[in-house]
Write a structure and sequence with these properties.
Layout (H helix, E strand, L loop, with lengths): L5 E3 L6 E5 L10 H6 L4 E5 L15 H15 L4 E6 L1 H12 L4 E7 L8 H17 L3 H12 L5 H7 L4 H12 L15 E6 L7 H10 L7 E3 L6 H4 L1 H15 L1
Length: about 250
Amino acid sequence: MTLPAHTDHGGAGPVVVLLHSFLMDGGMFAPQLAALDGFRCVTVDERGHGGTPATGPFDYGDVARDVLGVLDHLGVERAAVVGTSQGGFVALRMALLAPSRVSAIAVLGTSAAAEDPAVAAGYRAVLDAWVSGGAPPEVLSGVARICFGDFDASADEKRWASVPPAQLTLTMGALVDRDEVLSRAGEIACPALVLHGSADLAYPVERAAELADALPAAEPLVVVDGGAHFLSYTHAEAVNPALKRFLAAHA
């Protein structure tokens, strides 16, 4: 297996793996790296993102195995996993695939359900417009609005415009065709923290509530007032204290 691009940020504390959202990379966790100074943080570029290419169709179980491979490479037996949106999909699957390797999970702006068919159809239409039209500005701004809310995403929109169509097709396929894991959430016994923005335009708070209810060792759901979908990035000041407290107790 070719290891995904990753960065071990060092530190003597417990290991925390940070898994990014769709269209992003490990760099989105700069606000968390500054706050989690008592931990050994590892960021990973997931398949088709950042420095990790996708060479064919894949699912989030494959990405979970990729991340476990990074832990093997680093000689890390056990880690806490923090995931935003897509990263949360991967965190949940890591906890199901290798429960002995995951000490705790914290997921933000995520869902354990399969994608709603109507939403999936909309995403496929966005993909078609993006691939055929060379990333039209109105498509990029619409996606940015879903992901960032009112947060300034102009730099990310410029970066997205250069994403190769083949990579975008593969990563979008993994997103819209993902399997549901809500029915298996009861198997995840490790401590869990679910955070969600009240203004998340991708998944309603109900998706977070059902996940928190289904995870046996979950703390009460944390709803960030006005929080956007890429919650850890856009609302770090509200997120970081909750994350740090949770990880100090359970990582």
